[in-house]
Amino acid sequence: MNSQNRISSDEANATKVFVRIRPFNVKERKLTEDTKQLPYVLRVDENNPSLITTLDPSKEMLPKDTYVFERCFDDLVASYALEEGAKGKIDAAEKRKVGKDQSLVYSHVGKPVLTNALQGYNGCVFAYGQTGSGKTFTMMGPTNIAVAKCDPSTPRVRDKKGLSESVTPRLSGESNETNGATQTSGVSTPMDALEDSALGGEEAESAGLEGIIPRLTREMIDELHRKREKDSSLSFRIEMEYFEIYNEKVMDLLTAGGNKNVELRVRNSASGPYIEGLSRKHVEDERQIFKLIRKGNLERHTAATKMNDRSSRSHAILSFHITQFRLDMNDNASKIVSKLNLVDLAGSERTGASGVEGKQFKEATKINLSLTTLGRVIDALASISQNKKGVFCPYRDSNLTWVLADSLGGNCKTTMVATVSPHAVNFEETCQTLRYASRAKQIVTKVVVNEDPTGPSNQTADRRGATSAADH
Fold first, then answer.
1. Model-level pTM?
2. Annotation-wise, does 389 bind a ligand?
3. Residue 365, annotated ligand binder?
4. Greatest alpha-carbon span in the chain
5. Residue 135 annotated as lining a ligand binding site
6. How far apart are CA 362 and CA 382, in angstroms?
């Protein structure tokens, strides 16, 4: 965004950092049973969930370090419940508890970023942590939600006010009536139905298992329609990008045909780095967005390791470009543009512990290299925010940090979710994640509303392709 389009005054903004402690997974639970101990190495203050303390397993669980974050989420339901749910071994109450955790995380992490974006601020949410610590679950939801089968002919139904209502999943051929409209559905959107998921067919939305991305997507569409209902002069346009950084190569997750797995180049411009040739899709509703997310998730590189049955081998970045147009009484147009980056980072891992070799060893090396660079960038930006002189920020040492340069240290309200394991076997990795997270919250940037006033002659061209009240 060019400086002449930023007409509001600068506002200092500190990076917001949250911590999410996942429960023991199956392997950690087995270790606990074998040792007859409960090696829980993290403690969240019951009276102040912003405080978290590490407990040193080498010193009889004595407190080691205490950190202060925006909030720490200590998930109480074992993550293995999602796996056991498919076998009917957990009850509905436990499933709902997982959903409440997801809802709480979104209300604190995702919703404020969306609110700011709709006001014209750039925003970013990224999940950072060890492999298998819950990043993808936090950002997307259970793995199979992200890749569930989807019948594009069965969208969510939008009521007269423009607000979306879910269509209850039914067997193929059954009729579903909502607000007087009859629809025939196979499986609903991938975020609504879990027929192929670990919960064995329970509806995602009612179970509450959706992560930040699907919740934010749905609320973004709903809020824009609400704003338009209140102001007939408002129209909007949403464009979407989805790409991954795999082995330091940028690849489009939404491209078709022979262009798959083609490496894209990161270029520089006066307004900052951009990805040359990256596809950008115009989307009008959540059905279109979910379909594209599903396509991208199916293309994303994953693999099984000793640490994680479905380990992300790439960093995935989903970007929304939101443009809002408004006409005043004199037919003069104004335009607010914001960008939302939603980032699911690949997890750091010890190559020995994760049991990777060959191709996966190379992947792990590249992942760790980019995450190391991210740590150096975070450290440099924190030092710059403390007015230290002569600090060099190594953005260009990795495509990950170069692509996210503006989100990390530019005109952006950024939120980090640090995901950690509470088990003693992962103590060092957990401590490292918390150190990075603590450093990240020291980053302060200058942010502005991206508003561009335009004259009457420009309003027709600017509004072309936007969703307005007359379109519905």
1. 0.80
2. no
3. no
4. 75
5. yes
6. 30
